[in-house]
Amino acid sequence: MKKLSFIMVAVFFLISASLAAASTLEEVQKRDVVQCGVSTGLPGFSNPDEKGNWTGLDVDACRAVAAAVLHNADKVKFIPLTAKERFTALQSGEIDILSRNTTWTLTRDTSLGLNFTHTDYYDGQGFMVSKKLGIKSAKELNGAAICIQAGTTTELNLADYFKENKMKYEAVVFDTSDQTVKGFEAGRCDVLTSDQSQLYGLRIKLAKPDDAVVLPEIISKEPLGPVVRQGDDGWFNIVKWSLFAMINAEEMGISSKNVDEMKKSTNPNVRRLLGLEGIKGKGMNLSDDWAYQIIKQVGNYGEVFERNVGAGSPLKIKRGINALWNKGGIQYAPPIR
Amino acid sequence: MPTEDSSQKTAWWNNTHNRALLFQLLLACAVSLFFVFIANNTVHNLDQRGITTGFAFLKQKAGFGIIQHLIPYTENNTYGRTFVVGLLNTILVSGLGIICATIFGFIVGVARLSSNWLVSKLAAVYIETFRNLPLLLQIFFWYFAVLQALPSPRQSLHIGDSFFLNIRGLYLPRPIFEHGFGWVVGALFFVLLAIIIIKRWAGKRQEKTGEQFPVLWTSLALILSLPTLAYFASGTPIDWEYPVLKGFNFKNGITVIPELAALLVALSVYTASLIAEIVRSGILSVRHGQTEAAYALGLRPGKTLRLVIIPQAMRVIIPQMTSQYLNLVKNSSLATAIGYPDLVSVFAGTTLNQTGQAIEVIAMTMAVYLTISLTISYFMNWYNARSLLKER
Amino acid sequence: MIVHTPHPNLPPPSTSVGIIGWIRKNLFSSPLNSVLTLCALYIIFKYVPPMIRWTLLDANWAGSTRDACTNDGACWVFIKVRFHQFMFGFYPASEYWRVILAFGLIGALIAYLLIERTPKKSWVAAFTIFVYPIIAFFLFYGGLGLPVVETYKWGGLMLTLILATIGMFFALPFGIILALGRRSSMPIPKALSVVFIELWRGVPLITVLFMSSVMLPLFMPEELRIDKLARALIGISLFQSAYMAEVIRGGLQALPKGQMEAADALGLSYRQAMSLIILPQALKTVIPGIVNTFIELFKDTTLVLIIGLMDLLSIVQSAFADPKWLGFSVEGYVFAGLLYWIFCFSMSQYSQRLERKLHTGHKR
Predict the structure, then answer these.
(1) Which residue of chain C has the CA closest to B374?
(2) Is C226's CB within 8 Å of A17's CB?
(3) Residue C257 contacts by C-beta under 8 Å, 6 or more apart in sequence?
(4) What residues contact B342, with CB distance under 8 A and at least 6 apart?
(5) Range with lowest mean pLDDT among A103-117, B132-146, C322-336
(6) B381/B302 same-domain check
(7) In this complex, do B116 and C207 lie within 8 Å of one another by their Cβ atoms?
(8) Mutant choice from A160, A188, A192, A193 vs B, greatest count of B C-beta within 10 A
């Protein structure tokens, strides 16, 4: 009878499991969909609407990969993950890319079996407080109750910052960012801390967004970017260069609107990017027009930024350090050649 | 010799004994193979994905704050200490929950049996409402819908200058024990000892002579009088530290964080509804003849309940109650949903996430609950064996 | 001669019959009871009218936006707008009929089995156990010409029901095996069953779900990818089967030893004795226990929220974050609570009725 149960379990596994090929690229091509781990809802980065359509900067990073690999930016399956389960989901192969406002740190890059590809958003931790308190600087926060999301680098930065400034705080830890907002709104804590970009995103979730202010201090470096599993360099390159292609496209002035025109350009840089000459997609086992597909379907980095978090969005975050290197920022992509 | 004949005729695999042996052997092989398979996969996966293993992480600096800690804890302490802090918080909420749920459950259970129609029906409505709702939903309701409607610290509800209630929690004065408090504690111990002796003596005397001694009243009088006397004699050695509003929050005093309050209320209310049913069925399980016999012997209703009904009902109640206590301890792990820093929330939550060592952390967490459960069930089995009805 | 003509019986005093009598007997029989009654009345009058006003009289029913909620009472518009999501999660609207059909079918099958004296019960039962799951799989998931709806789009009440029924479907046979194993005279199956049962019963479901969502992938070969929902189901089924095993063991233990001895005496093999004599009797007596376990499981499915599955409670909770609909959490919780309550209450009533009906046989 025990054996019977084993057979049952085995059958169950077979029904629900699919045998996968060795390399992520082949697997994705066979499956015809990219599995992308995103947040459970963070405006501007990854947020589902009422119909379950996902939008945001992190979402577009995955869509770019789908455009490059599968020629269709919509062939992405978005899997919402809590902060706690995100790394395991990637380690175990449940997702191909983790694009979930994840901070690049030494520990995560080296001891979790993961590889960070590149930074698609340079962020830093900030504080949001109620306007009523009349606080101008984070240095005045001694003794405050602070809402944070569990399992994030924010928790650690916060401890460091308060220790360094010899201040005390009371950490109120929640499981999801939605809950932190609710706690903040109800007055459970005085301060909401998170990556500054998120604060702008969370602020529009408040009933009265204007009653809260984001303090100017940034207490940490939070480079956010897509993450892949360690040990599959081919896939690592694809995700990394999908991002680089978008940044390069912005630098060269190629956008989703003019990309077809730009095909006629004589600029060798543009021609190389669009796969008309040079190395093309061979090194990554992709078709020659991989970058063209990204730009056509998703857009260049600037477009993506403006659409999701910048002026064209409710968040209205300025480009700041996320501007291109030649425009006063630090976004810089290696050349395509 | 028919048996011998048949055993010679049947092939060895048709012998029941051999078949059982073979089956067990196969089963043992299958199970060990299964475990080897899992261990193999795990080692391979961990190795290939470059995930750190081992328990070295317990000695690393944790670097995150925990809102409620019963032992001193700062960000500089280790992950190992976060384990202890979480464990103690789990024990705190479970212990308080068990006490509240038992008291409340007993009251509701007795109310359910009340001859008062209205009270009985109210108790029924309470029981049927709360035991048919998921606990997690109840926790969320108390935390997000009820407690967050409390005022902000500046508009706290308060009794005088010592008790404050607001959305950040309940603030109580903290007793500070000064020199000389030992006398009060000593007096209390002395009284307890005296009560035990008096009780023994009263019991013996009643067996011999049938005379009764008002043990309860004597004990109450002793408990109230002697320590109070000692307290004043040693010069009122308790000082109170009152909570004061300073900066953002209240400082000093004892703080009951709302996460603890919500969890405690939800756990007690839910478990009480189950305990009430247990109490009711326990009392109903004592046959009515017992009551009649007690009345026939001239016992008054109060004594009947205390000396005849309850002791017999306890035999039915205790085992079921223990399993409810076990459930309560396990249910306290739902704390993670509202951020009360219990073992699952702190250790299997934040620590797991910061270190990424899922296997070690989950295994340790499970081991803790398993130990608690096995200890309680061991104790329960022992009690059951002891209180078993001695039938002749 | 003295003829004794008894005085005709007087009617009982007016204070001990009728409404007044009932009130006196049931509400004011003693000073203590009178006080309790007054307290209870106070509680009722203090809390019930405002509750009715909030939920019904002052509530807002019409409209489709937040602005429609002008009254003081509950804003049921919020529930109305999100109703489909609460029922089906992100399941595509054009495929709702599949879910409704699957649940309608199982509902009809179970009703048929529960109603007494319906013909061909065993065939219907066999159909429910062996054929229906296959039909349901294709209806829910897709295939055979139906478009595939991936499990991550499943949610709401539908997911809650799926989790509970599938968990039960696997827990029952597995629980029977474990219960038999625990009562077996062979040491190895017995030891394995005891360890298995005590292990799962000793830990909270949350850690089991954590384990199945976080650790299970590490236990499996690399090539084997198990769907997130399937992993949660594995965890729930293992956990539930341990509880089921204990319920069934209770039924087995309550059975007099003579039954097994009689079966032995008739020369029945272990399998025959179990399937023909012991299990039918034991299972009959534990049906209420099984239903109660199912109620527990139904309530416990809410915990999948913690591993990020969108069950009813979880999807209601996430709807609170919609900036267009802030501040309606009480309505959401009340709605979800009502649904859970209806399911659990009706099941527990059924189980109690069954218990009374079965309270005839071998109960000591």
Answers:
(1) C202
(2) yes
(3) none
(4) B86, B89, B90, B93, B332, B333, B335, B336
(5) C322-336
(6) yes
(7) no
(8) A188
Do B282 and B373 share a domain, yes or no? yes
Residues B128 and B25 in one domain: no
Mark whether B44 and B113 lie in a shared domain.
no
By the 8 A CB rule, do B51 and A91 touch?
A: yes
What CATH number should be reported for the domain holding residue C343? 1.10.3720.10
* DSSP track, B109-125: HHHHT-S-HHHHHHHHH
pLDDT tens digits along A133-146: 888 888 888 888 89
Instruction: Decide if A273 contacts A279 (C-beta within 8 A).
Output: no
Mean pLDDT of A32-60: 85
Contact: B370, C313; criterion CB under 8 Å: no
Residue C272 at interface with chain B, using a CB cutoff of 8 Å: no
Whole-number Å distance between alpha carbons of B138 and B131:
10
Please report residues of A whose CB lies closer than 8 A to that of C174: 5, 8
Q: Tell me, what's the pLDDT at A11?
A: 43
Residues of B in contact with A111 (CB under 8 A): 50-52, 356
Exposed / middle / buried, residue B3 (Cβ in 10 Å: 0-12, 13-18, 19+): exposed
User: What CATH number is given for A20-122+224-327 in this structure?
Assistant: 3.40.190.10
Q: Which residues belong to CATH 3.40.190.10 in chain A?
A: 20-122+224-327, 125-220
Pick from B9, B36, B51: which residue ends a domain? B51
H/E run at residue A17: strand A17-19
Interface with C, mutate which of A19, A34, A50, A180 (most C CBs under 10 A): A50
Superfamily of domain A125-220: Periplasmic binding protein-like II (3.40.190.10)
What does the H/E/C string look like for C266-325?
Answer: CCCCHHHHHHHHHHHHHHHHHHHHHHHHHHHHHHHHHHHHHHCCCEHHHHHHHHCCCHHH
Q: Return all residues near A231 (Cβ < 8 A) that are at least 6 apart.
A: A113, B48, B49, B50
Q: What chain C residue is nearest to A93 in terms of C-alpha separation?
A: C225
CATH code where residue B303 lies: 1.10.3720.10
Strand intervals (E) in chain B: 157-159, 163-166, 169-172, 174-177, 238-241, 244-246, 249-251, 254-256
How close B357 gets to chain A, by Cα (Å)?
Answer: 8
ipTM, two decimals, is 0.86
Question: Could you tell me the two tokens for B42?
Answer: 């795990």
Is B303 found in the same domain as B370? yes
Q: Determine, for residues C186 and B23 on separate chains, whether the beta-carbon distance falls below 8 Å.
A: yes
How many Å from the N-terminal Cα to the C-terminal Cα in chain A?
A: 64
Q: CA dist B213 to B112, B201, B208, B225, C65, Å? A: 33, 9, 13, 19, 73
User: pLDDT tens-digit profile of C257-280?
Assistant: 888 888 889 888 888 888 888 888
**Does one domain contain both B47 and B96?**
no
In a domain, C98, yes or no: no
Residue A18 pairs in a beta bridge with C225
C246 lies in some domain: yes
The domain of B287 spans 79-132+264-387
Q: Do C225 and A91 touch (CB under 8 A)?
A: no
Nearest to A52 among C90, C218, C234 (CB): C90
Sole residue written with tokens 């939070």 = A222
Q: Domain for residue C61, yes or no?
A: no
Cβ within 8 Å, pair C85-A175: no
> How many domains does chain C contain in total?
1
Structure tokens at A101: 């406002």
Any domain includes C277: yes
Minimum Cα–Cα distance from B337: chain C residue: C306
Residue B254 lies in a domain: no
- Per the listing, tokens 């009270």 go with B119
Query: What amino acid occupies position A97?
Result: I
Q: Amino acid letter at A240?
A: K
pTM equals 0.84
Tell me the percentage of chain A whose pLDDT exceeds 70: 93
